[in-house]
Design brief:
Elements (H helix, E strand, L loop, with lengths): L1 H8 L4 H28 L3 H29 L9 H16 L2 H24 L9 H8 L1 H19 L3 H27 L6
Helix pairs in contact: 2-3, 2-4, 2-5, 2-8, 4-5, 4-8, 5-6, 5-7, 5-8
Bound molecules: the ligand Cc1ncc(C[n+]2csc(CCO)c2C)c(N)n1.
The ligand Cc1ncc(C[n+]2csc(CCO)c2C)c(N)n1 binds next to helix 2, helix 3, helix 5 and helix 8.
Length: about 200
């Protein structure tokens, strides 16, 4: 996507990045809530603990990255959630609250997995010196993050073994929907998406 290509070569319009970070901080607050809901609804204490840790990571670790950019780039906290961000966060929260917990877990997985794939892809490209977005890049290409993603994938695989084929299909559908919403989130940042009315 152009947003990611320009992030890699450091030419991304700062206003687009600021829009992305401001919306992403709204996303993260709700993502943390969705993770906490799934922790509360998990069937095993192991899974509950893992989701509690993920929720903490989403709020504390990601917040630290954001806080740096908020200060450095003078980003204003956005009070208006973009259409794509609202669609994605409401989808995750309603899935976490109302759907079978395994389906909610599958819906939360692309957030981890796609950032890992994007992080690895970026890291394989020639690195630009003095890229203003380097700190963001480093967050998602590291070993520590890879370990977290592996754990999230393993939990979903383990949870799926206890599901019927129809439930597994629901898990796949939730995963695919969330992948599309990840795509829409990048795209909306690139377009600095506004409400049409
Ligand atoms: C739209 C959007 N999707 C995924 C992430 C990445 N992410 C957010 S929380 C979390 C798990 C705990 O750190 C991960 C990988 C993001 N920042 N913004």
């Amino acid at each position: 996507m152009p947003f990611i290509e320009e992030l890699i070569n450091g030419t991304l319009d700062q206003e687009k990045f600021k829009f992305y970070i401001a919306q992403d901080s709204l996303y993260l607050a709700d993502f943390g809530r969705a993770l906490s809901l799934v922790a509360a609804r998990a069937h095993t204490t192991d899974h509950a603990l893992e989701f509690m840790r993920f929720a903490e990571g989403a709020i504390v670790v990601e917040h630290a990255l954001h806080a740096g950019y908020f200060q450095q780039l003078g980003i204003q906290k956005s009070t208006t959630i973009s259409p794509a961000c609202q669609h994605y966060t409401r989808y995750l929260l309603s899935t976490a609250a109302l759907d079978q917990v395994e389906v909610a877990m599958a819906g939360l997985l692309p957030c981890f997995w796609i950032y890992k794939e994007v992080g690895d892809y970026i890291y394989k490209q020639p690195q630009k010196e003095n890229n203003p977005y380097q700190e963001w890049i480093n967050t998602y290409a590291g070993e520590e993050f890879a370990g977290i993603v592996k754990r999230a994938i393993n939990i979903c695989d383990e949870a799926a073994t206890k599901c019927t084929p129809a439930q597994q299909q629901e898990m796949t559908d939730a995963f695919v929907t969330a992948c599309k919403l990840e795509w829409m989130f990048w795209d909306s940042a690139w377009r600095m998406e506004k409400w049409p009315v």
